[in-house]
# Entry
Amino acid sequence: MEIHPLQLYIPPFMVLASPAAPCDWFGVACRPDQPSAVTADIYAVAKLNLPAAGLNGTLVGLNFSSLPTSPPSTSRETRPIPHTIGRLSRLSVLHFGSNNLTGMIPQEISDLGSLSVLNLSSNSLIVPIPSFVANFSQLASLDLSGLNLAGRMEELFVGRAGLKRWNFSSLPNMQYLFLRDNYLSGRLPPFFCTMNSLRALDLSRNRLSSEIPSCWWEMKALQMMILESNHLSGRVPLSSNGIMPPLLSLHLANNSMTGEFPLALENCKELVILDLGDNKFVGDIPTWVGDSFPSLKILRLRSNMFRGVIPPQLSRLGKLQLLDLAHNNLTGRIPSSFGNLTAMAKRQQVALLDGSRFTYMESIMIVWKGAELSFQQNLALVTGIDLSSNSLSQAIPTELTNISGLLFLNLSETI
# Structure
């Protein structure tokens, strides 16, 4: 019995047709190699979409530019993605994320000039930055998370492509850029300021250390910015032109940021998630927070140095599902108006970011029964209030009993 070489690396359930019909494989999509023809017998690979497919070790050669009528060569390459992948000139999606691939990515991958989506995340790959992405002029989504990338970011992603100087702003169609869980260091580079198509940026869990450049707010399309778990410092800057991007989600937790509650956010009317936890913010929580964020579902300010009373205006956040103000210096009473937090009165069954504008998984750290847990896939179902470790009045408003859908209420050590 003849076994296609890719079956050595792809679980058998993924091969739905005969080995000679690779266009029918799970995760493989094709299109006619000659679109003008009335009938096309030759098809070109358009998508290789194999996230978390159980791929291990190295992949064999892809010795074709369009899919053949017979199986590819059974000879094995020494690289996880073979040199010959550069021949798949019409490939638009390459998704090998969350597998067990190892070794060096071949330089020939830079020949895939039609790529719009490239995801190599969560593998043990060695990625030549930046040369291999410099030719991807159509690239809209790039995920290199969890690849142990190391170096100063302002140098690592700046270079030359031929005679031209290159950086990420040279990719005009880039909308989604995910580089989390690496060892990137240095400053937040200013070349992001001119990336007007960028919608989502995740640089979390790196070693970046600087202030946020004020020009970053000039990214006109930015909806999601995740910078948590770095070494960022300084204040959240005001926008240089007074206009903020249409942010839906902002994660700045677990840094060393200072100053008062960021005034720049007052005009971010579409915010759904705001996480400023585990920083060094000071001062009062502004009363305008309750009126400025009508869509806010998660407000996490824990482990800062906020002082003063809890603004009763927070009860105007009609969509709020999670309020975490623990470990601050808050005083006074718990507002009785918190009983009007209607979104907490029922169990939630909708996505945090309505309309599925992102398939990207949000995550939030929540202290649940004394343990710090990361909620991701089920985050939209969480409803809770944590006011612990403050200096609040002992009186618990009876109005809180109106919040029947509350999953947790933590008022420990509030005296």
Notes: Residues 1-20, 34-42, 63-79 have pLDDT under 50 and may be disordered. Residues 235 and 258 are 5 Å apart (CA to CA).
